[in-house]
Amino acid sequence: MSYADGFVAAVPTVNKEKYLAHAEFAAEIFKEYGALKVVETWGSDVPDGEVTSFPMAVKADENETVVFSWVIWPSKAVRDSGWQKLMEDSRMSPENNPMPFDGKRLIYGGFDIILDK
Q: What's CA 96's distance to the chain center, in Å?
């Protein structure tokens, strides 16, 4: 079964175009190292919660938009190998592809896909 990496971040709304350029650049590298698909979404209906929510999870402020993204890999083994190569690739360094958001508030994780219809 395929494997997925998921990401949630708070991006300054004024940086939408910078974020998209960053994501497009990174997506090509992800695919070079085995990713099947990279999806980036820009929040348009992401309500604040009382106990939990996407905005609360990334400590988004009123000038930020929540981004929800995922990468699909053929397997966890391909992901693990690809991820190591990504981290060693100079094109992904902050100097060459700076994140237009606060990476300290990025939430990410790897997931076994248990349903895909």
A: 17
Mapping DSSP onto H, E and C, the string for the chain reads: CCEEEEEEEEEEHHHHHHHHHHHHHHHHHHHHCCCCEEEEEECCCCCCCCCCCHHHHCCCCCCEEEEEEEEEECCHHHHHHHHHHHHHCHHHCCCCCCCCCCHHHCEEEEEECCCCC
Report the C-alpha gap between 117 and 42 in whole angstroms. Answer: 23
CA angle 18, 96, 36 (to 5 degrees): 75
Residue 83 backbone phi and psi in degrees, to 5: -65, -40
Nearest-CA neighbor of 11 among 22, 2, 3, 1?
22
Cα–Cα distance measured from residue 22 to residue 73, given in angstroms and rounded to the nearest whole number: 20
- Could you list the mean pLDDT of each consecutive 10-residue stretch along the chain, which spans 117 residues? 96 98 96 98 96 97 98 98 96 90 96 95
